[in-house]
Design goal:
Blueprint (H helix, E strand, L loop, with lengths): L3 H4 L2 H25 L11 H16 L6 H10 L14
Length: about 90
């Protein structure tokens, strides 16, 4: 089975990476304003919240095919890919 990233044309991959970087910049702005990356439905724009939720789902679906550069950038900020249901805050 071919991964979604492998099936993309070069141009599609460039657009995908550009879009990811825009969303990542939104997360950096959120962090600068809030001093954390605990993005929840109540404290972020719908777009940022949806992107964060999607990144978690992509990683959970297949951690081995998740972009390692994206993984490093997010984890360097303190982003967590799995949520502990016992936590009172979400990252």
């Amino acid at each position: 089975m071919i991964s979604a990233a492998a099936a993309m044309t070069h141009q599609e991959q460039v657009v995908h990476n550009s879009t990811w970087e825009v969303k990542f910049q939104m997360l950096l702005e959120f962090q600068a304003t809030n001093n954390h990356v605990k993005v929840t439905q109540g404290n972020a724009t719908r777009l940022l919240y949806s992107w964060v939720r999607n990144e978690r789902q992509l990683y959970k679906k297949d951690p081995k095919s998740y972009d390692p550069v994206h993984y490093k950038k997010l984890t360097d900020l303190g982003f967590q890919y799995s949520l502990n249901k016992k936590q009172t805050t979400f990252i």
